[in-house]
């Protein structure tokens, strides 16, 4: 391979074990620290069924992701799939949608971790934003120093957290349940329906794994295996933690909605366990940030390689074969958004809300890609069924849809301009051949 080709090629370092750890760190994020309590408070002791139903609902989407990721591995992830199926203009639109989601959601995650650090050190004000920037810098350094180090750190963080969360759940479940607030009978599962939308967002994040498809050593075999293993582990963790919350806490206690895992540990070990929860929260966030930064930097790299972003970002380090410029750019943008939050230009709640809606629309685009690329009638029928479910879910967004629709329109315009300029440059160079 010559130096020019190597300059835009990523190192193939991902194995099943590393991919599973990335999925765990990305999916098991900040939501697990609050959602079990919020769902329990909303629908009572039937809330466990919301976790079960959503675990079943996500399966069709994961089947689609696993199929696309194994067949079309690329650093552009979902945007790469869309570009392949619908061309560069729709691909550019998807890239902008993903960037607008990453650039809001990842700083929001960092601010969540910063809140736990602020609790540990009894800080407030600008200290929280500085903590968020510190976490982002750590994630950036891990990614900048190479995928080997980043993957190892992710494995240590993710598997340690799985063990800790499982231990918390098992210990809590050995305690006597709160009177009249154990687990409702299966016949009451319909009572969990109001919590389905809330809980569903705990199951998002696997789409980020698609941005690492180009770095799998054997994507056709390993990508689906990583999805399956991580799905099983995550569902078991979620169900265990949700059961532990129901088993030990009252549904209408303020602590149940604000910090359910902290409340469970306090119930088991006493109030001094709050610092342990804070440290665990920071570790969960750091694992989340490491994987998310990996995915976001690959999106910028792929977009630049396609010519939509400046070619400056398409370069990779010749020794480690990682897109260091894209990593640094991502961290700088994330830090800028944290500063915007600090001065009051955007709230953390708004970051999550807008990013979440964009990510869900990315799911819809993935289903459309699957419909376009599949050649089997049964697969097409399956995908149309998934599409109908997604459209029903989208109706709950309301006016929040204005943001992703605006970003989509801007992406279409910029994509069309880029395509026109590319064609113009190609035609002008033809006489010189």
UniProtKB/TrEMBL annotation:
Membrane topology type: Multi-pass membrane protein
Sorted UniProt keywords: Cell membrane, Membrane, Transmembrane, Transmembrane helix
MF-aspect GO terms: transmembrane transporter activity
InterPro entries associated with the record: AA/rel_permease1 (IPR002293), APC_superfamily (IPR050367)
GO annotation, cellular component aspect: plasma membrane
Location in or out of the cell: Cell membrane
PANTHER family assigned: AMINO ACID TRANSPORTER-RELATED, L-METHIONINE_BRANCHED-CHAIN AMINO ACID EXPORTER YJEH
Name by which UniProt lists this protein: Amino acid efflux transporter
Organism: Alicyclobacillus vulcanalis
């Amino acid at each position: 391979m010559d130096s020019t080709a190597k300059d835009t090629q990523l190192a193939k370092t991902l194995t099943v074990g590393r991919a599973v750890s990335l999925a765990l760190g990305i999916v098991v994020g900040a939501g697990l620290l609050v959602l079990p309590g919020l769902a329990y408070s909303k629908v009572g002791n039937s809330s466990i069924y919301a976790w079960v139903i959503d675990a079943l609902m996500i399966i069709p989407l994961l089947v689609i992701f696993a199929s696309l990721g194994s067949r079309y591995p690329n650093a552009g992830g979902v945007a790469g799939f869309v570009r392949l199926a619908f061309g560069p203009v729709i691909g550019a639109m998807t890239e902008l949608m993903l960037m607008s989601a990453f650039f809001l959601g990842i700083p929001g995650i960092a601010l969540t971790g910063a809140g736990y650090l602020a609790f540990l050190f009894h800080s407030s004000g600008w200290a929280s934003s500085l903590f968020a920037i510190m976490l982002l810098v750590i994630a950036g350094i891990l990614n900048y120093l190479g995928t080997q180090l980043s993957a190892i750190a992710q494995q240590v963080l993710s598997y340690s957290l799985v063990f800790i969360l499982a231990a918390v759940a098992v210990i809590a479940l050995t305690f006597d349940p709160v009177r009249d607030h154990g687990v409702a009978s299966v016949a009451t599962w319909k009572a969990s329906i109001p919590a389905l939308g809330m809980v569903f967002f705990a199951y998002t994040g696997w789409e980020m794994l698609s941005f690492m498809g180009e770095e799998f050593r054997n994507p056709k075999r390993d990508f689906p295996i990583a999805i399956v293993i991580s799905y099983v582990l995550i569902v078991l963790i979620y169900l265990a933690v949700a059961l532990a919350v129901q088993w030990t806490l009252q549904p209408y206690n303020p602590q149940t909605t604000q910090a359910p895992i902290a409340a469970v540990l306090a119930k088991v070990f006493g109030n001094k366990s709050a610092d342990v929860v804070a440290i665990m929260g920071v570790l969960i966030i750091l694992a989340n940030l490491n994987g998310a930064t990996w995915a976001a930097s690959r999106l910028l790299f792929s977009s630049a390689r396609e010519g939509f972003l400046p070619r400056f970002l398409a370069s990779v380090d010749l020794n480690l074969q990682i897109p260091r410029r894209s990593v640094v750019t991502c961290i700088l943008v994330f830090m800028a958004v944290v500063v915007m939050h600090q001065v009051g230009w955007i709230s953390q709640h708004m970051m999550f809300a807008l990013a979440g809606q964009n990510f869900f629309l990315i799911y819809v685009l993935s289903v459309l890609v699957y419909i376009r690329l599949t050649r089997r009638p049964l697969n097409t029928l399956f995908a149309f069924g998934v599409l109908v479910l997604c459209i029903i879910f989208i109706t709950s967004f309301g006016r929040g849809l204005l943001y992703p629709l605006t970003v989509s329109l801007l992406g279409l315009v910029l994509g069309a301009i880029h395509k026109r300029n590319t064609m113009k440059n190609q035609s002008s160079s033809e006489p010189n051949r």
